[in-house]
Structure to design on (830 residues):
């Protein structure tokens, strides 16, 4: 197979084209959103919600309803239960979350593995981009529009609060409301993306892009754009790999994203030029320090 | 004619949900005054500022500020790894005008540039905030306060960790701000520097004293404020020379 | 879906499979209950869950290659514990990278599994456990885990408690806090690996977190927590196993769901009572 065939072959298949479309749409919005997910340290909550929504997915699957609806219901219930449990002063929030998530996830598995019922548990857990339905594409498209608008409107409060929480308050921003809005957006994004990438792997598209690009980020909008671009490219690579290597599609996309994050964390590609340039131009008394590693 | 105070506390107490950590707050700050807030670590200086900014509601009494005070934090509280330039930070001040969902206007950008120049950092507007020195970071946060056009500024240990040369520049800024009629509340560890303020507020989990330096920087009050953390160097009447032993939590 | 009528306990006990499973669950209840108490006190819930999850690719490889899954899981589990212990000093390896590491483990596991296994049933077993596929090797390993959990609790319980309340003071008092904590992490990883055949890689928390969290709602003092935790774990394990046999389900989800319900009920029922602080001097 020559290179052109390599590139064009998946595009000839209707299934793969739709998978590419889904991954691209998800990548654009989730890749941008990932900057804030990582910036606000929401990786654990995101993972908890992703696991906790499983019963919703399973019920939708059993009922033959669009998965995205089940996921939305599932994430709402999971979020509510976690909030309720975390309020108890006797148990710390992390443990309470673990109890809720374990219970919900187990419930999802139970419903899916009960014999006699068709168990598509594998796809619900690990994703099924090749099985993307029209409903999924519509939902992804809607997410791009709604999510994009939300991110644009919330941009300045998100940045001000992330940079200096108390200072943001003095500017008239309510940090709790900003955080709540972000969680809401995250929940919706999770619900839409989980139909393609699965409950266990969806976190990749909401965290990896930001981790991959953070060394190069010069400003929040630049970081978001870079994250979006990277997510789309990594996602496409995943689908291509799945097509040519026969590997599970959802996992291939997730692993491609995680690989990008690993490369980014290990410092590839390096960027000594940019720092040197700024040092000369800025006339700083001391050379610029690397920002402390405790990550964004 | 006495103008209304811009900062007012009446029997106020502040706490984080359990017992109050700061009580007996009773003071009135007139417009244009500079107030030095003294106290040991954990004595409540940051708590007071949190209350004034509205992050904490008083558990008792009243705490009032005219308008929205600007908050200039210790720079280890801001995110040094967040990818914003000095100009971006100054520009955040324009959020105070209310329409947060709209991008910053050209006028806002001009105001931000001008305020950076005012604090002497016009040439660093494109530099990443985290790559500036401690003193420069403080000045950027002051620039943000200027864009915000706050009449009251709360500065939490602004000179901590700042080299003496920059510190002087910052102190000059303070004078300039006061000349504009702005009110400054500056928390500090340095008892000596407190002498230049119009008023001094001593906190040690409660209000120990409030008044002009001549009245408050006496031995008795300082010892009540700092307990064992203070070393008094002079005897005699009036303001004493004293040094605080600083315990920095890391 | 038709549900068979509940089998009688006597009938079940006739089955060798059930007897083996019961023994396994009982031993895991001891390990999970004892270590669970420390997991709750020292906030290691995520670590326990992650230790289980991380072993998934190792389990797939071992299953495919025909080697003992326990060995593969142990290598991964202990490696994970070691990695966490080393990273614990620095301000965390960031939640983001740890979470991504687990996603990677699951992704690699399923890619290998789809290549190697015909049906999804094997993956289900690795992820959620089995009631009927437990053997004497599993029981033996769980017995070791339970014994080590008990020994660790007796020997290091005081250190673990003290470090939880005030790490600085404990070190100053000469307690070997660093080493004691390392031992705790290793024990948790080991016990998590022991529980994999029964509850699966994804639901280790069902035995290692939920019972202890439930007991925490009632417990007075650390020894009360330890005892209650084992009791709850045993009850949940037994009920989960019964449901598993009755309804032909893997034990992991059964125990997890029952545990969640139990916790919810207890949280509501005890909500009126004020918080009972654990008294440090009651370390085992």
């Amino acid at each position: 197979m020559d290179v052109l065939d390599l590139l064009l072959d998946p595009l000839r298949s209707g299934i793969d084209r739709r998978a590419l479309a889904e991954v691209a749409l998800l990548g654009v919005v989730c890749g941008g959103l990932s900057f804030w997910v990582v910036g606000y340290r929401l990786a654990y909550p995101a993972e908890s919600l992703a696991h906790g929504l499983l019963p919703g997915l399973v019920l939708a699957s059993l009922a033959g309803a669009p998965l995205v609806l089940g996921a939305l219901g599932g994430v709402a219930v999971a979020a509510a239960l976690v909030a309720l449990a975390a309020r108890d002063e006797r148990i710390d929030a992390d443990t309470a979350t673990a109890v809720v998530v374990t219970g919900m996830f187990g419930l999802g598995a139970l419903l899916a593995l009960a014999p006699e019922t068709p168990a598509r548990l594998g796809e619900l857990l690990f994703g099924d981009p090749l099985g993307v339905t029209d409903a999924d594409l519509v939902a992804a498209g809607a997410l791009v529009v709604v999510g994009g608008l939300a991110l644009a409107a919330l941009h300045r409060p998100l940045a001000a609060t992330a940079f200096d929480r108390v200072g943001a308050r003095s500017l008239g921003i309510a940090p709790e409301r900003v955080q709540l809005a972000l969680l809401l957006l995250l929940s919706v994004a999770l619900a839409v993306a989980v139909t393609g990438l699965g409950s266990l792997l969806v976190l990749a598209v909401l965290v990896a892009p930001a981790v991959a690009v953070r060394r190069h980020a010069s400003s929040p909008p630049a970081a978001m754009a870079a994250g979006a671009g990277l997510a789309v490219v990594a996602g496409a690579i995943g689908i291509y790999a799945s097509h040519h290597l026969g590997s599970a599609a959802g996992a291939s996309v997730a692993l491609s994203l995680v690989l990008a994050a690993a490369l980014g964390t290990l410092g590839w590609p390096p960027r000594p030029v940019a720092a040197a340039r700024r040092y000369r131009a800025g006339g700083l008394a001391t050379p610029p320090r690397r920002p402390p590693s405790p990550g964004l | 004619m006495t103008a209304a105070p811009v900062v007012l506390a009446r029997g106020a107490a502040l706490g984080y949900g359990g017992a109050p950590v700061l009580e007996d707050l009773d003071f009135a700050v007139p417009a244009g005054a500079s107030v030095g807030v003294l106290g040991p670590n954990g004595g409540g200086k940051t708590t007071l500022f949190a209350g004034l900014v509205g992050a904490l509601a008083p558990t008792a009494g009243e705490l009032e500020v005219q308008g929205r005070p600007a908050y200039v934090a210790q720079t280890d509280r801001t995110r040094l790894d967040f990818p914003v330039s000095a100009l971006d930070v100054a520009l955040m001040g324009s959020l105070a005008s209310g329409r947060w969902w709209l991008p910053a206007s050209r006028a806002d950008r001009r105001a931000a540039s001008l305020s950076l120049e005012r604090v002497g950092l016009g040439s660093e507007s494109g530099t990443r905030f985290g790559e500036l020195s401690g003193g420069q970071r403080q000045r950027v946060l002051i620039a943000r306060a200027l864009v915000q056009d706050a009449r009251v500024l709360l500065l939490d240990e602004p000179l901590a960790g700042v080299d003496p040369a920059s510190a002087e520049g910052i102190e000059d800024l303070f004078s300039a701000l006061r000349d504009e009629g702005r009110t400054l509340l500056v928390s500090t560890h340095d008892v000596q520097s407190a002498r230049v303020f119009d008023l001094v507020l001593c906190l040690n989990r409660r209000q120990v004293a409030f008044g002009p330096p001549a009245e408050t920087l006496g031995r008795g009050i300082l010892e009540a404020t700092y307990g064992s953390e203070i070393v008094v160097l002079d005897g005699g009447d009036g303001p004493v020379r004293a040094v605080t032993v600083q315990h920095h939590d890391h | 879906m038709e549900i068979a009528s509940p089998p009688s306990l006597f009938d079940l006990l006739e089955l060798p499979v059930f007897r083996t499973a019961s023994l396994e669950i009982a031993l895991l209840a001891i390990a999970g209950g004892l270590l669970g108490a420390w997991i709750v006190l020292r906030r290691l819930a995520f670590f326990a869950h992650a230790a289980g999850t991380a072993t998934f690719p190792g389990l797939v490889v071992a299953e495919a290659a025909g080697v003992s899954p326990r060995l593969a899981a142990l290598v991964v589990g202990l490696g994970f514990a070691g990695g966490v212990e080393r990273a614990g000093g620095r301000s965390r390896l960031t939640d983001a990278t740890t979470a991504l590491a687990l996603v990677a483990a699951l992704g690699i596991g399923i890619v290998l599994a789809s290549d190697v296994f015909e049906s999804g049933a094997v993956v289900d077993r690795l992820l959620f456990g089995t009631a009927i596929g437990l053997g004497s090797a599993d029981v033996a390993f769980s017995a070791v885990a339970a014994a080590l959990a008990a020994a660790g609790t007796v020997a290091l319980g005081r250190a673990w408690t003290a470090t939880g309340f005030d790490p600085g003071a404990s070190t100053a008092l000469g307690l070997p806090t660093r080493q004691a904590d390392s031992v705790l992490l290793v024990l948790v990883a080991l016990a998590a690996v022991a529980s994999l055949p029964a509850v699966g890689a994804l639901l280790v928390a069902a035995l290692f977190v939920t019972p202890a969290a439930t007991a925490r709602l009632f417990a007075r003092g650390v020894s009360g927590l330890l005892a209650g935790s084992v009791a709850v774990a045993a009850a949940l394990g037994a009920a989960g196993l019964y449901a598993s046999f009755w309804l032909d389900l893997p034990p992991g989800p059964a125990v997890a769901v029952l545990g969640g319900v139990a916790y919810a009920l207890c949280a509501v029922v005890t909500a009126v009572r004020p918080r009972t602080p654990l008294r440090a001097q009651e370390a085992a």
In short: Chain B has seven helices and eleven strands. Residues 12 and 25 of chain B are 5 Å apart (CA to CA). The domain at 1-69+152-161+182-250 of chain B is CATH 3.40.50.300 (Rossmann fold). The longest strand of chain B covers residues 20-29.
